[in-house]
Amino acid sequence: MTRVLICGAGSYIGTHIAAHLARFPQTYQVAELNVQKPFSAGDFAGWDVVVHVAGIAHQKETPENAPLYAQVNRDLALNAARLAKQQGVRQFLFFSSMSVYGLTHGHITAQTQPAPVTHYGQSKWQAEQALCALQSDGFQVAVLRPPMVYGQGCRGNYPRLAALACSLPFFPQVKNERSMLYIDTLCAFVRRLIESGRGGLFFPQNQAYVCTSDMAKQIALCHGKKLRLVPGFGWLVNLLARRVGMVDKLFGSLTYDRALSIDFADEPQMDFAATIRQTEVGA
Questions:
Q1: Per-residue b/e over 111-133, b at no fewer than 16 CB within 10 Å?
Q2: Which of 27, 58, 167, 241 could cysteine-pair with 248, CB 3.0–4.6 Å?
Q3: Per-residue pLDDT tens for 75-127?
């Protein structure tokens, strides 16, 4: 029996991981820890694995809230890891982000160096460095840098795109590629990572890149709509992308090199259209 503590009760990713592991009751015992109150003595005692998903994101960044990002995304994770190590936890999984690269478009390879430009990205990168310094033979630190995670009830850019796909009669046809990650695929990856007991840097993603226009069309189909994709708007999208960050995030190309995602690549994945159906209508 492997005892897994999800650090960050009620989080989108953490709740799904807990539910996924609960499907294997003979193998895993799972609980979630509320981190909105100070850690207590013994919070991590007796647990084999800590999955740290607590953090803040999807908030408007200002100069005034930079310390809050550091406090929650960096300091909280570091405090949890130190206590976990002291209390005998053997593996610590930390959820970082693609944002550590500071890119809204591009192709990320093993040679691409982190260069965060947001409070969120900077706090995650600082946390990564501090956590990796804690690694030892008896305490493995695994850092995950997922791309955009989507699934039923997700937050961020996906629901914005879904709203557009369901309300517009037509949609610009673009030829972009984006790395994305379906929530169930992520949960299966985490289970395999826990089974391995490994530390290191990991890049889970869907097996195929996603085109924004194709995704919008799939979303519309789930709701009985036939979304017309209109070519010839590439120039306008490119122009807006230079000026509007949200447009770049939706229509720009941003991918992880496939070679970064070879870990547990044998794990079966649901095809993309099916993941969209599950996300939109749960079937």
A1: eeebebebbbbbbbbbbbebbee
A2: 241
A3: 999 999 999 999 999 999 999 999 999 998 899 999 999 999 999 999 999 99
